[in-house]
Amino acid sequence: MPHFQHFDQDTAIALACSGSAVEHDRYELLAEHIREALPDYPVKISINSRAVIRTMAEKGSVQLNLPQTLANLDMASYRRVVVVSCFLYPIMSTE
Length: 95
Hints:
Blueprint: E1 9-18, H1 24-37, E2 43-47, H2 50-58, H3 66-75, E3 78-87
């Protein structure tokens, strides 16, 4: 397909995460589990909440929203992107 000639990367995974800045480490852990299970696919986290993005920026962590993440993957020449909607409920740990 001539239209896709400039896409030289195959597939990437974008986690579209909702929730809280407090629980952001759990999204990072989820992304790491996916990276271990699917090492051939890059996994990117995007944040759906502007408030969470602002809170994370105040802590020194730059986070992107889904359109920014998809644009970056497009610029990196990924042919396909699997978008996974994630919402982790903050609950008390039994540990």
